[in-house]
């Protein structure tokens, strides 16, 4: 047999799992001890979480900050240091910021996002100091009920941040 041939006997038969219905209050399938509130009773205050740090950024940490039981979407943008710029080798980038103004501008971006899209939580984490190649310099996470809102909000956030926020890299 050549490398390009596919032997159908080497693939296992597709196994379909039964779809289980979503758990509904009062259903026989609902786990015991699980108390559910009516959707109107769930009160979760929207959060804008902004952090500047010299420490390595964690994608998991930032994404978990915006998770909500009211949301079906969490969208992320992760900006990393690449190994080249205009044909030159890059080993690391160094970021500086005027923190009072940078934080204020990011709060304005969050406010603008909330006026344009129905989002729940927004997190913007930016690293300062040296950021080696392949490590994250910025993580933006947004949660919303539906994916379109969070995807559009994340795109708007990074574009506006790069244009308006006093953060410099060298």
From TrEMBL:
Keywords: Cytoplasm, Molybdenum cofactor biosynthesis, Transferase. GO terms for cellular component: molybdopterin synthase complex. GO terms for biological process: Mo-molybdopterin cofactor biosynthetic process. InterPro entries: MoaE_sf, MOCS2B_euk, Mopterin_biosynth_MoaE. Pfam families: MoaE. Gene3D superfamilies: Molybdopterin biosynthesis MoaE subunit. GO terms for molecular function: molybdopterin synthase activity. HAMAP family: MOC2B (MF_03052). This is MOC2B synthase. It comes from Crocuta crocuta.
